[in-house]
Design brief:
Order of helices and strands: EHEHEEEHEHEHEHEHHEHH
Radius of gyration: 18 Å
Structural class: alpha/beta
Oligomer: single chain
Largest sheet: 8 strands, parallel, barrel
Helix content: 25-40%
Distance between the termini: 30 Å
Number of strands: 10
Number of helices: 10
């Protein structure tokens, strides 16, 4: 797959971060495609199936050859309760259920979602073989894994035959405050694994709107990112713009996912992505973040 450098993450369609009007979500997807984005990522976990259902309504309005679609297996939930099931049986069942919600008959990329919550041996010996079998049947095109922890992704790739895992989706590790993903480029490339980046705003750390109350980052990192926000505001250069431009700047990353159910925000993000980056400001931002660079937190 040849992906657009900026791509559309569907978590916002499920109202994961705040309530969303369905029409706005559909219009946001249409704005992404109209703006040249050709890759959409979603999951049954986002909004507990809502994101896939909203996306499915949008996809009815878009020719199938205009986009590549990724969804996931392994992480689910209902009524505010998270659930996980990485069994082969559930993985296969989940693929077909997702296709039904999305209104499609083929998934370009199927991911094992948030493998840090799984027994990695089960992912290697059960989940991935089930998805590879679907790939061999032509139900899905490619197979990947997602996680906040790149160490887990590396371990899985090391324990399966080359070609099993074709891509990794890593979030919050190639953005202005964290470039940890760079340490793994050589390894993934040596195994023929494509790299997808996500969350250029570090889940709201790099935002003029302010860090959401639920954010798991330690206060020291929050404070450092707020210094960076203030620096960009003073320069008249929104940190969101700089963050998106930075995250898509590395040619070793296939694509960077961002999410918004606001069509105006989608169009603005695409405009930013097409403008040249201010590297001097990047240097100043990184100086402001200082020793908090690469400070990590646990997934939830």
């Amino acid at each position: 797959m040849s992906l657009s450098k900026l791509s559309f993450g569907g978590s916002s369609l499920g109202g994961v971060f705040h309530s969303v009007k369905e029409k706005d979500g559909i219009d946001a997807v249409l704005a992404a495609i109209e703006g040249g984005i050709n890759f959409i990522d979603v999951s049954p976990y986002y909004g507990y199936y809502k994101a896939e259902m909203v996306l499915g309504k949008a996809l009815k309005l878009i020719p199938r050859d205009k986009y590549y679609l990724s969804t996931k297996v392994g992480r689910y939930g209902q009524d505010g309760v998270n659930t996980w099931d990485y069994s082969a049986e559930k993985a296969v069942e989940s693929v077909y259920e997702s296709m039904d919600r999305l209104g499609i008959d083929y998934i370009d990329l199927i991911n094992v979602h948030d493998i840090e919550f799984a027994d990695l041996s089960q992912v290697v010996n059960e989940t991935l073989p089930a998805l590879v079998e679907l790939r061999e049947k032509g139900v899905v095109g490619h197979v990947g894994i997602t996680d906040l922890q790149p160490e887990n992704q590396k371990w899985v790739v090391e324990h399966v035959p080359d070609g099993t895992v074709e891509s990794v989706l890593s979030f919050c590790h190639y953005c202005l405050n964290d470039d940890l993903l760079e340490d793994y480029f050589d390894f993934f490339e040596s195994h023929g694994v494509g790299i997808i980046n996500a969350s250029p705003l570090a889940m709201g750390l790099l935002s003029t709107r302010g860090v959401p109350s639920w954010h798991p980052a330690p206060k020291s990192l929050v404070d450092a990112c707020q210094r960076a926000v203030a620096l960009c505001t003073e320069a008249g250069y929104p940190i969101e713009k700089l963050a998106i431009q930075y995250s898509i700047s590395n040619p070793r990353i296939a694509s960077t996912l961002f999410g918004s159910a606001n069509p105006a925000n989608v169009r603005r993000s695409i405009e930013w992505a097409n403008e040249p980056i201010d590297w001097d400001l990047v240097g100043k931002v990184r100086e402001a973040i200082g020793e908090q660079m690469r400070v990590r937190w646990k997934n939830s």
